[in-house]
Amino acid sequence: MKYAEMTAIELKNVSREETLVILPIAAVEQHGPHLPTGTDEMICTAVVENVEERLKEKVVLLPTLWLGASQHHLRWGATLTCRVENYETLLCEICESLLNDGFRRVMILNGHGGNIGPMQIALRRLQVDFPTCQLMAASYWSIAEDEIASVMEGNCKTVGHACEAETSLMMHLRPELVDESLLKNCDDYKLDMLEGVYLCNDMFQRTSQGATGRPDLASAQKGAELFSRIVSRVTEVFQTVQILPLPK
Amino acid sequence: MKYAEMTAIELKNVSREETLVILPIAAVEQHGPHLPTGTDEMICTAVVENVEERLKEKVVLLPTLWLGASQHHLRWGATLTCRVENYETLLCEICESLLNDGFRRVMILNGHGGNIGPMQIALRRLQVDFPTCQLMAASYWSIAEDEIASVMEGNCKTVGHACEAETSLMMHLRPELVDESLLKNCDDYKLDMLEGVYLCNDMFQRTSQGATGRPDLASAQKGAELFSRIVSRVTEVFQTVQILPLPK
Amino acid sequence: MKYAEMTAIELKNVSREETLVILPIAAVEQHGPHLPTGTDEMICTAVVENVEERLKEKVVLLPTLWLGASQHHLRWGATLTCRVENYETLLCEICESLLNDGFRRVMILNGHGGNIGPMQIALRRLQVDFPTCQLMAASYWSIAEDEIASVMEGNCKTVGHACEAETSLMMHLRPELVDESLLKNCDDYKLDMLEGVYLCNDMFQRTSQGATGRPDLASAQKGAELFSRIVSRVTEVFQTVQILPLPK
Amino acid sequence: MKYAEMTAIELKNVSREETLVILPIAAVEQHGPHLPTGTDEMICTAVVENVEERLKEKVVLLPTLWLGASQHHLRWGATLTCRVENYETLLCEICESLLNDGFRRVMILNGHGGNIGPMQIALRRLQVDFPTCQLMAASYWSIAEDEIASVMEGNCKTVGHACEAETSLMMHLRPELVDESLLKNCDDYKLDMLEGVYLCNDMFQRTSQGATGRPDLASAQKGAELFSRIVSRVTEVFQTVQILPLPK
Amino acid sequence: MKYAEMTAIELKNVSREETLVILPIAAVEQHGPHLPTGTDEMICTAVVENVEERLKEKVVLLPTLWLGASQHHLRWGATLTCRVENYETLLCEICESLLNDGFRRVMILNGHGGNIGPMQIALRRLQVDFPTCQLMAASYWSIAEDEIASVMEGNCKTVGHACEAETSLMMHLRPELVDESLLKNCDDYKLDMLEGVYLCNDMFQRTSQGATGRPDLASAQKGAELFSRIVSRVTEVFQTVQILPLPK
Amino acid sequence: MKYAEMTAIELKNVSREETLVILPIAAVEQHGPHLPTGTDEMICTAVVENVEERLKEKVVLLPTLWLGASQHHLRWGATLTCRVENYETLLCEICESLLNDGFRRVMILNGHGGNIGPMQIALRRLQVDFPTCQLMAASYWSIAEDEIASVMEGNCKTVGHACEAETSLMMHLRPELVDESLLKNCDDYKLDMLEGVYLCNDMFQRTSQGATGRPDLASAQKGAELFSRIVSRVTEVFQTVQILPLPK
């Protein structure tokens, strides 16, 4: 079910205890020289809409919040963002609308690395007031970690930024928006963890081109494969969490 | 041009002085018994995407912020919202991303009545720091006031909430989402202005069904007519404001 | 009744259901070359005190909050202000004091254009927590629109800033504070609405002298006429809203 | 000079280095059974207007901010207030308007005990950004401590709340607003300091009648004497601080 | 009892009505040329730990919050601080943890002058929500005023900043951290009260060396004497307030 | 070097470019039936003070901020905390004091799981304003992950809450504070990640006794071993990051 396509009457008839309400969140920010700024939003929305189709009666899908916490991309330009603390507040507010309307299972499905911290903290801020609701958050790549790794060729086996995975996914989903002439090896980026220490550098400092990994290894076929595995796995996991006992 | 479909390189090449950047904002909230909660988002996006097509090289269109300031609908349920003051902040933050990136002409195009106050105040908050930028905001119905009035049959000649106009527009744009069996005369709603006084009542107090005006007079044909006139007029006006001299 | 002149015991005996509590708000800000900065405060207070005299047992009048949301005048200097968002909070707090004390009918009577947005939003912020109270706001000129228009000679038939109306009112109320040698035609100001679009410019950009309309057409006699009509009309309208059924 | 009575041109000609700008602050709150809620505002305004008359060319007097930090009176009812932290912000904003306009000497003159903490903290918040301005705050009774003590008959020799001093001052300034039939000995109130410890109790806990000291010893004559001594002393002290070297 | 050394079970068994919970607060900030930045923290902790030893079963002592409101020292460098308004919030939060856990008697024991305002305001902010709890705050020198005065030799008979008293106390408590070669007469500092007026200057403006009073008169022996008298007096006073009737 | 033990003069002489400034943060919160609430603070402080001793001239150690983000323990009682968003602000403020004083390398060393999110977000909030400083954060267990794992016997090989590791460390550091009679197998706790999904449950929901892992396998000897390995590893890693090139 899609929240925005339902009338108030239809929404009123949805089970508050059993339904999993999904809030997809992403970002619109620079994605290296070859990908459109809306990459995260497009991938996340495509994934979650496919998942919704397979779980129709069990989930209610909200429209994707395209805005992300992207301050660490600002020095590259072409980035829309929100202060991190205000992004937490924004997520809290949207979830509160649902929780005050009685929904007991809320899942934030994320498609942008920079949102992980704020989305988890938003849930912690909410949990104090809604302890008997199941508040959840995941990035599609944390759910489909193994599936993604099995397809990737470069050294980095997970989803980075404008990387082999994202580029492949976009070549599959929106090939006309990918500038294939600019696909390069971007494997020189610096991780934000070093010897167990979090180094808080922005993407201008961590990458030479605003992208990571191996976009040059990307292909539409790989994108199709990734997409199909991600959708399957997210579907499976949503089925699992949708029947978790509610917390007390 | 669509912001989310452009790469950072493409965006860097856009003229900061001349381009009109458009941020469409809407709402996802109860829309009476017959319209989907996403009505405002769907209409606003359809209008603005059609306008963008006609003004391609002159505007950069952001994706629609579907979240609106909708606290006055909360008692009807089926409403996603944000505190009014936080909504102002959210609009400020998105616009700041653009203004700090050098854009000088920003237009918020609105599709939800409850956003008018916060969007104007957001611009006032920004204007102090960006006095030499042209900060603008409009609802599609304030721009196309006469065009809309000329099509409407009910007493109310402007766009209300889940009214003759919105229902017609949705019957034109997304007929499958309109529950035509529930179209009724909703002309019993109470205005928020009485003898020059603003009466701050919520939609639960002002309407008997969460809708206003004459949805029963709506038709797909009327919707097509409205849509075409709105798009033409908004296009015209955007052409006008896009060449206004920048403020000093 | 005047709140500040009553003891706690007297205030305790006032009917919470029936009494209309009035909070007058204004501004102290530059008013062109010819009017004192306190113009809005002086006019608003004079109006509301005269209204109170005629409705003695039905209203409780608070002292005038002279501070307004006047950031758009800052570049002219001689302006006291508050950030717009903090002004909303301030109005909320004062009204909350009243609402928590049991009063059910609160009217903000405004004398400064820049306060219209924030005062309406303040009421929206409050309405969520006090849905069964009648929260109201008006500018004296929105109530007495026709009465004012009938007296004005210039093209602009409503109250602007340091304009024909305000200058006349001050020549009537505090003639010694008006510098008549500097009364000029200020009809070159730019409106903030153009073709249905809100252009967020400040008063430094919209006026050449910090004033609008036709101060040169002002006269004490016109001021007396305006004042008398405004007071009568506001009195009438307050009588009407004071007996409105309370919302549920 | 009175800020609100001056035009922008007149204010522009005032010396930023030498002029002392005075912001009077007070409260509108319950004042026991016998005094009007506006007591603090009326006394403070009367004092400061008399001082201004004696120092005309040396000071610029703002209108009195009648709102105070009065949460500790709320349980008595008949009290208008603002959260303490927001009151600090409000004072900061008004002073910032002045400091950004170039004024270098700002004095908050206070007439309500509950404002002492917030007004000092407001100045501390401002001092970080305006270190070369002389930011000052005083209650009229801290300046005229000895003068007041010399007139008082009760044990308490300073200004309390609705006490011998305030009642006398009101009997002098606005006798028609004092309910003399209710003047009682209120000397049972509990101080907020005990053995060097601040006990944070509200006025409902500290007083049995919402008043302190010996209103029963009050007289109009004593009020006249107090008023004259306070005005003289405040005038003297303002002359002193007005020529203090500015900080670096 | 020491909060941090107790298990949750032990804490659960402590009487909520009778126990005095003590939150010591201090500062880490420049302390002139001769004292370590942690001076306030070290003295305050030493005092309060000695007091706790004498009142073991009657009090629960929290660890010292070393952070203080020290913005007025920033221009001297070597200072850790928090905005004043955020310091208030921080104190509120810690106290709320205790009050929500049922404790009814909370005492903030302070060791830094700059904290007096914020700690009192923090309690005022809390008192509105916890009116039946006894919220208290004191600086060790306000409690032991006479005891301290009787030992001091310089003109200033109370505790200033890096003064005769603090230097003596540190020579007693942590002699190895005092640079005795730099002890000088610092009696040139300017008070923040002049003729009853609060002059908001920072320590860079008020002192020539970041210190006050007569560090040159300090001695370890005097420190021992001061320490012993302070501890005795604070112990006595805590015994008194621990049995005060709780407010209603 | 220890910040709190140094004078302002000594601190002024420390190299801003090369010195690593360390802010240890922890928590005071319920730690199951057997450990004191100050466990995190005691362990973290012991670790970091030992590290400081080995790196004396290269680091400046601040005192430990004992307060943590512990709202998820509140339902167990015996917990001091701060709202998560305010905890972020608090960390920002302390770090800003250092960064504005010129220090270029700041490391938050954490000893409480609940602080990981907020500390990383605090650095992200700061990085926008201090891009050329190296802002770092780590938990002692993320640095010494392998060393800790090699000592642990239970299934969980990392530091949980009141677990085998923390209990052993406390039996080594402060044996008198451990209630050994209550050491139990607490391996029934629920992780906050399930199939790649973050489940936001509090500790009341995730543990049956407020503790995790195998406290029953703890021993002082294991604690000594853990402590020594942790200190060595943290020392090594701090040496590494202390010479990282500063970001641009």
Summarize the structure in words.
The structure is a homohexamer of 248-residue chains. The radius of gyration of chain A is 18 Å and the shape is globular. The first copy, chain A, has helices spanning 8-12, 39-54, 84-100, 116-127, 140-143, 145-151, 164-173, 203-206, 220-242; strands spanning 20-25, 59-61, 105-110, 134-139, 193-194, 197-199. Chain A is 40% helix and 10% strand. The mean pLDDT of chain A is 97. The longest helix of chain A is centred in the C-terminal third of the chain and has 23 residues, at 220-242. With 248 residues, chain A is of the alpha/beta class. The first copy, chain A, has a domain at 3-152 and 223-241: 3-Layer(aba) Sandwich (Rossmann fold), CATH 3.40.50.10310. In chain A, α2 (39-54) packs across α9 (220-242) and α7 (164-173) packs across α9. Chains C and D meet through α1 and α3 of C and α1 and α3 of D. β6 (197-199) of chain D pairs antiparallel with β4 (134-139) of chain E, so a sheet runs across the interface.
